[in-house]
Amino acid sequence: MSQSSLIPEQPLVISPSLAATIGLEEAVLLQQLSALIQHRTTMSVQGFQWMEIDRPYLEKAFPFWSAVDLHRVSKSLADKGIILIDSPPLHSTESLKFAINEKQEVVAPDLTSEKPIKSTGANLISSHWSPSEEMLQLLTLNHQVSREFSLGQLEDFVLYWRERSEVSHAWENKFRQHILSRWRHQQQQEAEQQVLPTENTISQAWRPSEDALEILLRNAVNRQFIDDAVPEFILYWRERGENTSTWNSKFIAHIRRQWARFTSSLEHDTEPHRIADSWHPTEDVYDILHLANIDAKFAQGLVSEFVLFWKDSNQAHSSWNTKYLQHVKYHWAKRHQLVDQNGKPNAGQQRHRTGSTRARSLAEDLTDRSWAG
Q: Which end of the chain has the least Cβ crowding within 10 Å, N or C?
């Protein structure tokens, strides 16, 4: 039977289960490399059968792949621990030096037989087992794993598999997988540590950043208040021993809370104090007077004598706004004859007094203490 013109060449035979396990491209290349090892001369080095094959031969055998593709697929096989490679990337060299990652170990010959018996390779790991020099070199060349790191994991590797009492025909492959897993884990930890903040514990010399100061100043926080709060902030967090990279954010939140309390205490101070020379009632006072239908200009005209009286008396009170409200309401009532000379409401409705807005002289008002009780 003649071959179909649709299939001009010998077809590639692919194992479906192998392709499902390692990938279709990897299965194609692996089966051809395995066939070459079986039919060509190899060089045995510490149990591995090494072969060097020219790149033009591979390009002819796999015309659907470029040199870059051949490198990609062969490197994938090496990363999976299926083959070993001891040559530069295939797209930058003229040959591929490789070995199937299976040692062919020879045991002591059977004295009753004329032929040596080859081991199947499936055996318990020896307590003195160690990877080959080629494996250590390949880990360094292909994965940048240092020799010191690989040998540093050897004791744990041997102890683990001896405790499990499992047999294997590819301890080097298992060692390679073990090393790569540990290596990637270490690299991940190092990468995470690199992104950790450089400033963890707050120091005595810590100061808020310019951005933090600008945010607080935009919120009308006094600069001196901010500077005075820094030592207290540092002491608090140093005693707690907390580590964080967000000291500026913590400081902004701290200052905002403290400033709100400070300003609130100024507005609602319960500590008695003398009246200031520049004292004026707050806008809230005028709002209250407006609700009582008391003229604001009338109230403002009483501020100076109110301040003068209480400065001369040298008394201290916790709320000058309250005292001022009482003062204004008294004089407004006196102006409209709503209270008598003792500060008590009149019994009957009287008409408004005409002429001067004052029912008495300034001297009489200043000596009248009924509104200051």
A: N
